[in-house]
Design brief:
The chain is α/β, with parallel strands linked by helices. It has helices spanning 6-22, 24-31, 44-47, 57-67, 92-100, 120-133, 148-151, 153-156, 163-188, 209-219, 227-230, 236-239, 241-273, 312-330, 336-340, 349-367, and strands spanning 36-42, 76-80, 141-145, 193-197, 278-281. The chain is built from 16 helices and five strands. The protein is globular.
């Protein structure tokens, strides 16, 4: 074999440099062959309430990670701890009842059943234990949503609610408690990018008043033969128009303030752990996509108070089995009806795709 000259060596270095500049994705992807660990924690938004597995936000993002994100196929291990109703932390009154019942917070309920536990905090702890047991350093990407379940949607949209109280609660949960949860996640998962997913416009000026009222009456199991008495152009403005206006105002307050405080939580994390540790993903949805708007991408209420989602029948059965048992054993009382209709107003498959695209755009610079 001939001796390599200094000129040949310099040509090799130059060619290598051109390859790195021209095809960084290939170089970086080739260097990372170990599985990518993807953890999903939080509430019903990131769980994908009402959607089939193939249509959930995290499934769409995981598929992209496996095929495209790194410039070549890569193995992705998806761990989902999120579930409907999850609060950021275990609320003290529920924690005390669990303690008296001798029950651990990780007690399993099917994810479509909207109970507050396990909290996002506990989900992160449980996942960290599983990663450690498997000899792994933790997740590479953690996707989370949370805050509204701590306040509860009934308080958010309460037309008689105090706006100042709502703003204070949003700061407490969407900034302060979210920061605590993200801090735990960053500490337990030293290599993870944290993607905090924001909420969407729930009720907007584009929402049809008659359709909103119809959905409410269906949820209340109002006799169908008499719905026309309550929902018609003469009686509807008398008692429902003002309620809708206030609910719309409260919806706007929650959207704007939750976005602001979730961003602040992310900024605080980046200040503590580094500029590129966390990212806030704002909802891609607009007023056009809100509940009962002409272009809504949210699940709608159907006849008989059954939501038009893809797992409604299974969720109804699960709620009717789980919640009476929860009340009997712990004294914690959740509404079975609210559990049954929990998917209403959540992103449908089209909404999930919109969210997935926004998340991809936001996290791509962090992955590379």
């Amino acid at each position: 074999m001939g001796k390599i000259t200094r000129r040949d060596f310099l040509k090799f270095l130059a060619a290598s440099a051109v390859t790195i500049v021209a095809k960084p994705d290939f170089i970086f992807a080739s260097a990372r062959t170990e599985p990518f660990e993807f953890l999903v924690v939080g509430d019903s938004l990131i769980w994908g309430q009402g959607n089939l597995e193939k249509d959930k936000i995290y499934t769409l993002v995981a598929d992209w990670l496996r095929t495209t994100a790194f410039g070549r196929p890569r193995e992705v291990n998806l761990k989902v701890k999120a579930h409907s109703g999850s609060t950021l932390k275990f609320h003290p009154e529920e924690a005390e009842k669990y303690k008296k019942a001798g029950r651990d917070e990780t007690y399993y309920y099917k994810p479509e059943v909207n109970v507050g536990f396990p909290s996002s905090w506990k989900q992160i702890e449980a996942a960290a234990d599983e990663y450690r047991a498997a000899g792994k350093a933790g997740a590479d990407l953690i996707m989370i949503s949370g805050g509204i379940t701590d306040i509860t949607t009934s308080r958010v949209f309460d037309p008689k609610g105090d706006d100042a109280v709502l703003r204070a609660e949003i700061k407490k949960y969407c900034e302060d408690d979210m920061f605590d949860v993200l801090e735990l996640a960053a500490s337990k998962n030293p290599n993870a990018t944290l993607a905090v997913v924001g909420y969407f416009p729930a009720i907007s000026p584009k929402s049809s008043e008659s359709k909103l009222l119809n959905a409410w009456l269906e949820a209340l199991s109002f006799p169908r033969a008499f719905k026309w008495v309550a929902n018609n152009p003469i009686t509807r403005p008398i008692y429902f128009s003002k309620l809708k206006k206030r609910a719309m105002q409260r919806s706007k307050i929650f959207l704007e303030e939750s976005n602001r405080h979730l961003r602040l939580a992310v900024e605080r994390i980046n200040t503590k752990f580094g500029d590129h540790r966390a990212v806030f993903v704002e909802s891609p949805m607009t007023d056009e996509h809100a509940a009962e708007a002409p272009n809504t991408v949210l699940f709608r209420m159907g006849k008989g108070g059954i939501v038009k989602d893809n797992v409604a029948r299974e969720r109804i059965a699960d709620c009717r089995a789980a919640l009476p048992e929860l009340k009997r054993t712990t004294g914690i009382d959740y509404s079975i009806k609210l559990c049954e209709i929990a998917a209403v107003g959540h992103p449908d498959p089209t909404g999930s795709r919109m969210y997935a695209e926004a998340i991809k755009t936001a996290i791509l610079p962090h992955l590379r």
